[in-house]
Amino acid sequence: MQKSWIDSANDGSTDFPLQNLPFGVFSVAGDGPRIGIAIGNRVLDLRACAENGLLDTLDRPVQDACCTPVLNELMALGRSAASAVRRRVMELLAEDAPANLRGRMEPLLHVAEQVTMHLPAAIGDYTDFYASVYHATNVGRLFRPDNPLLPNYKYVPIGYHGRASSIVVSDTGVKRPSGQIKPADAAVPTFAPTRLLDYELEMGCFVADGNDLGQPVPIHEAEEYIFGLCLLNDWSARDMQAWEYQPLGPFLSKNFATSISPWVVTLDALQPFRVPAFQREAGDPDPLPYLNSADDRLRGGFDVVLEAWLSSKLMRDEKLAPIMLSRGNMRDLYWTLAQMLTHHASNGCNLRPGDLLGTGTVSGPGKDSAGCLLEMTRRGTEPISLPTGEQRKFLEDGDEVVFRGYCIREGHPRIGFGECRGVVLPPE
Prior knowledge:
alpha+beta; single chain; five-stranded antiparallel beta sheet; 26 strands
């Protein structure tokens, strides 16, 4: 197993070994945002690498893209460009790199705790799917006990268009939103802060080179349009959602904030953790031909462990550690990333570099793998007890939600996504 000359990258607990090298955008005091790559507890400045001639083996457009303040230009060059950068950086950081290279690299590395992270791309559009059959069934059962899944679910990847302008990077506070709420026993709705604020544990997928308007993306080409993955929290106001979602779906209940982790893990780094697509139950329909591919069935899934953690303000005041609420896995998604992207573009919709797709809540078959509080607390009827004696049906002001994601497989280093954090702020 290849190691790096950066010691922290060889720690088995790090999210960022040499085999990961995710892309992100960071800044240091007194300077503007630039593209970086995470390695152990350090961040490598790609613009500085280019300016110091360390990327000269790459094509000029790729070098130029590494000098921009967001990832869109590199994304637009396609997956192959990011792959080339990653291979070159791996050469520079490997333990067998020439000593003179190490000397040139050292000044270009920043301590991760001393940088500020930004959104990795200028996100033009954001679409969130509903790809977990466990989540869809659990939520459907709360409202339609006898018929939890709607007839179209197993035929079409369901999604809605979200709000790109309210996507924020991890560690950004999320203010409790206000909106129309109509309790079941009320004759008319009122406008008030949400009382049923929830998180949704998801994965985000950044689009690489997009497709032209009117040009669909075949299923066998779909992954060439995927730059990489991040963690995503689709914050949701459940009481607002229940009142507004008919007949057109979510609106103000979900567009007030979506948090993402700052590092984008490439599909190259995730190759050792590919698994078959979700095994459909006997009697389930096969995907329609445009969504059906032998290769996607064989390796369309990703073995990514996803965890949701919670700490209340009182827990933090008392120096108590966060508690893990759930642990799920991305391999439990009914629809693959390739199917989601292919379906999105199947009508000729033009995806663009930097667009973001969300998987929807990732839930598993058990309560301990439920990806949101709506499922976990059974719509608030089964509260969660915290170490302080507090209880939670839904999120309270001061609560901090932390998502973590990682891949583990024997014979390979642990690959992680970092964290996606957000503290609930009171309404003004």
